[in-house]
Amino acid sequence: MAIKLIWHGHGTWSIHTEQHKLLLDPFFTNNPSADCTAEEVEADVILLSHGHMDHVGDRGDGTFDVVEIAKRTGAQVLTNFELANWLQGQGVENVVGMNLGGTYRGDFGAAKMVVAHHSSSLPDGSYAGNPAGFVLTLAGRKIYFACDTALFSDMRLIGELGIDLAVIPIGDLFTMGIEDSIAAIKLINPSQVAPAHYGTWPPIEQDAQGWAAKVRNSTGATPHVLQPGGSISLS
User: Fold this and answer.
1) To pair with 207 at 20 to 30 A between CA atoms, which of 81, 86, 107, 115?
2) How many angstroms separate the CA atoms of 229 and 227, rounded?
3) How much is the pLDDT for 235?
């Protein structure tokens, strides 16, 4: 069964299996690199890594992409306990609160919430729980979304799960940059790797093709550099 991953720009991804559509960190409305709108995307599971505006999709008018998509589609949202409570306060009913180290198992497969070294607050500055990454088990494949994070040595332990594809931030300033991402790839040892969280605004512009060359020269992973709307297939 093929798995299709679509990059919508920044840290936002759709993950499609034969029967399910997952969506990670929906940021469309104020995302200058987004390839589509929040109204166009479909999902039956939404994964939310942390509370920053570029992950909940702050629209600037008191509404949020993650809330509006969840209400429109009825998708089940998987996130940390504090964000789950916030979403319920926003009128989202189908929410599962998790915490670091926990795994949720559903019809789509499994999602394990893993450590990310970052911060997490809601756009109004209120506490949004621990930031996280996710390891998804879908159709016998393991996909690691590091989400917003610095480099940390325990990425090696995540790699011991046997990662087929890792999605790693490379933007620098707010997350790890290119050099640290290469060290992360060496720790994780995935078969394939894709960059994210770069190029959206000038402070996080990066040479993605230069990054891909470093991946080829320094690691055993196959790099994928996408334009927003581009996709990767795992079969």
Assistant:
1) 115
2) 6
3) 84
| pLDDT at residue 212 in the model | 98
Closest CA to 108 of 120, 96, 119: 96
User: How far does Cα 99 stand from its chain's mean position?
Assistant: 16
Q: How far is CA 147 from CA 17, 47, 186, 226, in A?
A: 20, 11, 17, 17
State how beta strands 132-138 and 109-115 pair.
antiparallel
- For the stretch 50-85, pLDDT in tens is 999 999 999 999 999 999 999 999 999 999 999 999
Q: What is the pLDDT of residue 114?
A: 98
CA angle at 143 for the pair 140 and 144, rounded to the nearest 5°: 145
CA 145 from chain centre, in angstroms, equals 5
Sites in the chain below the pLDDT cut of 70: 1
Residue with token string 């069964």: 1
Cα–Cα distance between 197 and 167 in angstroms, integer? 10
Reading the block at residue 119, the tokens are 């911060």
> What burial class does residue 111 get, using C-beta atoms within 10 Å of its C-beta: 0-12 exposed, 13-18 middle, 19+ buried?
buried
pTM equals 0.98
